[in-house]
């Protein structure tokens, strides 16, 4: 087994491409591994983070006429961008998606989608077998049950695929808070989507901007 370690194994925005798969109403109705609201929040945060770092993002749905359009929370992040609608269950068998990914020239392939055991596992496993450096964002994905999601992750790990959460990915792309071009916009994503940490940051700003009382 080849271990994933060393500095070169960390993800870099300039080498990354993100594919968001089937974040649609039909899939959401049978999402049982996570709180559906949390998955919508996490996926939106992931999309915004990719935009902050200039990471090309491919949006794809399956038979949207029946399953519904990609969540507006996501498409609003990329106004005017076309969504590739497929008939293939396995995204990596759809030439339009694969061509769009290849056109970016990047090899660190990041995937999130619904459902983990089907629409994430199949393309991740195929792409990894074709030599792509594949990472799955587990908390912007979800399965039809906790078991389905967990077994899918185990299966993908056995295939050499890297697992991360969206906030871990954001930190890995940022790497250094001295990178001010992205530090500010990323902080706003955290304020909007990280709950307690976002509230704590705003409280910190309040305290820093509150004059210290002086004795009368």
Rg over C-alpha atoms, rounded to the nearest angstrom? 18 Å
Report the portion of residues in β strands.
5-15%
Q: What is the percent of helical residues?
A: 40-55%
Overall average pLDDT: 95
Main structural class: alpha/beta
The number of helices is: 10
Largest sheet: 6 strands, parallel
Distance between the termini: 70 Å
- Counting DSSP E segments of at least 2 residues, the number of strands comes to 6
- Can you write the helix and strand succession as a string? EHHEHHEHEHEHEHHH
Shape: globular
Spatial sequence of strands, sheet with the most strands: 3-2-1-4-5-6
Oligomer: single chain
Low-confidence stretches: none
Structure, described:
The protein is of the alpha/beta class. 47% of the residues lie in helices and 13% in strands. It has ten helices and six strands. The protein has a six-stranded parallel beta sheet with strand order 3-2-1-4-5-6, with helices on both faces. α6 (116-129) links the parallel β4 (108-113) and β5 (133-137). α2 (36-52) packs antiparallel against α9, α6 (116-129) runs parallel beside α7 (146-158) and α9 crosses α10 (196-208). The mean pLDDT is 95.
Notable traits:
216 residues, alpha/beta, 10 helices, 47% helix, 13% strand
């Amino acid at each position: 087994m080849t271990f994933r370690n060393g500095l070169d194994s960390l993800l870099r925005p300039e080498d990354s491409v993100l594919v968001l798969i089937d974040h649609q109403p039909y899939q959401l109705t049978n999402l049982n591994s996570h709180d559906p609201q949390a998955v919508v929040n996490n996926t939106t945060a992931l999309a915004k983070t990719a935009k902050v770092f200039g990471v090309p993002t491919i949006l794809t749905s399956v038979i949207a006429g029946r399953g519904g359009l990609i969540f507006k929370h996501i498409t609003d992040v990329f106004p005017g961008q076309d969504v590739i609608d497929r008939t293939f269950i396995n995204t990596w068998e759809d030439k339009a998606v694969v061509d769009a990914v290849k056109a970016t020239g990047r090899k660190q392939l990041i995937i999130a989608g619904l459902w983990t055991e089907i629409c994430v596992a199949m393309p991740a496993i195929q792409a990894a077998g074709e030599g792509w450096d594949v990472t799955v964002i587990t908390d912007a994905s979800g399965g039809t049950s906790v078991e389905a999601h967990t077994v899918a992750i185990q299966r993908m790990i056995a295939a050499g695929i890297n697992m991360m959460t969206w906030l871990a990915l954001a930190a890995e792309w940022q790497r250094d808070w001295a990178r001010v071009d992205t530090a500010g916009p990323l902080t706003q994503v955290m304020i909007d989507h990280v709950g307690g940490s976002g509230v704590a940051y705003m409280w910190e700003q309040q305290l820093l901007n509150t004059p210290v009382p002086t004795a009368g």
